[in-house]
Amino acid sequence: MKKVLSIILVLLLLTGFTACGQSDKASGNTTPSQSTSSGTSPSDAGENQTNLVIWTRDRADAVFMQPAIDEYNKTNADGIYLDYQMYTDNYEQALDMAYATNSGPDLVAISGYTDIFVKYVHQGQYVCIDDYMTAEQKERYSGLLAEGSNAIDGKFYYLPMCGSTGRLFYNVDIFERCGISEPPKTISEMTAAAKKITDTLKGEGIYGFAMNLKSPASALGRSLDFMVQRSGGPKQGFDFSTGTYDFEFYAPFIEEFREIFTTDIAFPGCESLDIDPLRTQFADGKIGMYISWSHADPGVYANQFPTDENWNIAQLPILDGAQEASQSIQPYKGFMITKRCEAPELAWKACVDLFYSDDFVKGYHEAGLGCTIVDDLKSKVEVPEILIGKEEGLLGDKDKFWPATPHELNDQAVIVEGNDQYQTFMELIFGKGDIDKSLQDLTNRYNSAYQKGIDSNIGNKIQIPNFDPANPQG
Amino acid sequence: MISKNKIKQKGQIYLMLSPNLILFFTLSVYPIIWVIRFMFYQYGGPGTGEPIFIGLDNFRRIFTKDPIFWKSVINTLVYAGGKILLVLPLAFFAAMMLTKKNLKGVGAFRAILFMPTILSSAVMALVFYLLFNAYNGEINKYLMTLNIIDQPINWLSAKNAMKVIVITSVWGGIGNYMIYFIAGLQGISNEVYESADIEGANFTQKLFCITIPMLGPVLKMIMMIAIVTAFQDMSSIMVMTEGGPINSTMVMFLYAYQFFFPISPGSLVSTQFGYGASVSFVSACIVGIITIAFLRFSRKLDEIY
Amino acid sequence: MERFYMEKAFVTILKVLSWLLLISLFVFTLYPVIYTLLGSLKTNAELTLGKSILPEDPQWVNYIKAFKDANFFQYGLNSLIVSSATMAIAVLTSSLSGYVLARYKFAGKKLMLSTYQAMMFVTIGPVALYPIMNMLSKIGMEKSMLSLILVLTGGQITNVFLVMGFVQRLPRELDEAATIDGCSIFRVYGQIILPLTKPILGVVALFTFRNTWNDYITSLILTMSNRKLTTLTVAVVQLKYSVWAAAEWHIMLAGASLAIIPVLSVYIFTNKQFMSGLMEGAVKG
Q1: In this complex, do A57 and C242 lie within 8 Å of one another by their Cβ atoms?
Q2: CB neighbours (10 Å) of residue B35?
Q3: A219 and A143 belong to one structural domain
């Protein structure tokens, strides 16, 4: 027993010492310069070196990002050292905690469907970059200004390098084997094609349609939302012309999905399917079609899940008989300077010289990692190798920036009681409840939440009287 | 002299309690007080503006406008009930079997049963997904080869997902409770059993007349731990189903959690500290009521023995 | 006579049944573990396609990748220090409190017990980290390893109760005699109580080590502003996910398989403590 005790004691002492040592070192770090505090700074840190810590959620493009950053660290003349840290899972949580405790990085990478911009910009966590931008830059990037997603009150907070939106991914061979000559253009064609594939090839374990419904918001946010928009409907339930929420438009879409998911047309187990298992099954030729982000999946089949299947990309199906309108672009891949950054000018310089430079954006685009949305670059970039023959995967003229909904502008302004829209859709798709009644109830709940937000001065009334979904920016 | 000793003793007592008390108050009590303040506010957490006082409105929402919460209460009861009823007897059984002194390799056997508790719940949930999924899961394959079923079962559907969650948690829990039981059984001296043997007591008699009564406070403690942790479990559910499909595996504390942090990167539930705090409070009250009921019940048991 | 045989047959059947049950328990427990170990040698596609439980061509490279990407040695050392220290502090604080609560009367004991009991029901999960981080950054300790260790140690409610329950079962005469002899409480604790409570302290040590080693959220948040302190579990879980592209599950399984080793070693060490009670009994008997 004495042995155990002594071991414990020794351990205690040991760790006590190391812990003190660590804490001394750490607190020594904090006092003089905040910006060098975190991360693994290189040992040969010079006198005039500025360390800038960048946090990102993306690991997929690290193969491209890291060498570029290493190169920049070696060659730049401003003594800037970029410390690129990947947080992947729990990125939002780490950021949240960092902001709440006044710590965190100098630069924050933003990518995709996330609320880290809107949520913290009102709190003053980010530095407005308008003051740093030259008149020339302002002119050039004016088309990228998207209120609520990279700008507030017409002022830029970051420049999105790329954009993405939803697309239909389909297996050409499976379609041909079932005598379907082209991808579905309308939702009823989609259901019919899915049914035909499942009926014909179910014996081989091949199904017509799949969806990553484990997280309904993630699945329907990349599919249903865009399909509704393209059919001339509201954006995430918000009708800009009336300035109210209205989910009635969704009914026929839900009907189609309900047919797919309640009559055994869909791939089994979609209600608990994550996007990655879905992709491996698609790569293995077990899925006829599915919907995902335009920029992400081509790269996945090129690198992570290599496939011999003959697949292609198509535009999303729309409502039968509807006029094709437009679907919104989700801007992504930008870098926000935080208020903690002690050298915002240098941070901005690093962004301009590296991330926002034409070479970098061009390289990123051509590596098939994302689709550039800078107008004068579009003509200069080449089609990425992995998208040759699959050009629908690039952004086209029906992909446009849409204004932000009240919920996107500030999620605290629309606190919905009960199930949110995606959870409600999920229930309906799996046959639970009356579609019209539930959608009506959803509309009411969203509008009362929206009104409550306006009444308590958290949100504002938004209305664009002559809003045209085909030309959302007016 | 005596009183001086007494004072000295009192001082020693408080000195010995203090390290734990300090940690307890700063790390357990203080955060809860910090959160409880928000129960009467509409507050989205740090970074979303100032808290707005709304009185009892959060509780109005819980009791009148939140069917998902009440569904999650039922789910929690089903989950906790299922887990406790399976895990405790199995763990007790394993502990009984593996404290036999004449059994060779007992250490290795225990280590095997303990293995699941080492794997992190994130990894565990992934593995169970791969085992149970509807399209190529191992379980369906075995059942079909053995001709038990002819169609793959959709294990992770709204109808079945809870069963899989319970199985996963039982798998992950047996090792833990086995160790608790073993530690408890060590306290019973062999002499008692030996004298019982001499008197010709059979296995069942020994179990109910010696083992269980002698486990006494430890058994009660283990059951308490089992109840409280089963009601608070959420990490494997979070990774495996995120509470779905259609909230069929949503449990109380996971439901509360999502108002503080997004469950998954794709989740778009707004952070609502105020509402989340109220949900946590009501959930804690429910667990409290159940535990008090258990304590009452076990006191009755004490009287019988 | 007949009754005797019946009883004997009954006992035999019971024995056979219980062995069958134990064996099925082993299979049930081991299968997913083996699946994990084998899965860590597969390619990502192989793993998710689920063709066979055996890897086609063992991908030892997964381990090299997990080693490199998770920075195994540096972060492993962090984990080892943090987990051992947390374990030591947990054993010390919970045994001190547990012993005092089981044996002595003092002002405020009832209040303390009921507060501890009440706190068992309440959980706010990682949300507690907001106020804790705020407090730590106010006193300038948000970057130290000591903070991480103390926060991971926490209130120890369950452990205190476990030790208390165990001490309550020990015959009072053992330590009372020593107290009357004039030993200080500390000496009674160190020389009598500690050796007697070995089985339960082994449990506390093991569980604390395991929980600390596997902790993700708290370690992530508390090492956020000083990445030198990153623990192995944080590094391994970070291998898992990328939101807009495929997760590397095979690497994560490899990392998780590697991370089993240290906890298993601690298990083997502490297992002796649970066993010891039995051995002593056997010698006496």
Answers
A1: yes
A2: 22
A3: no
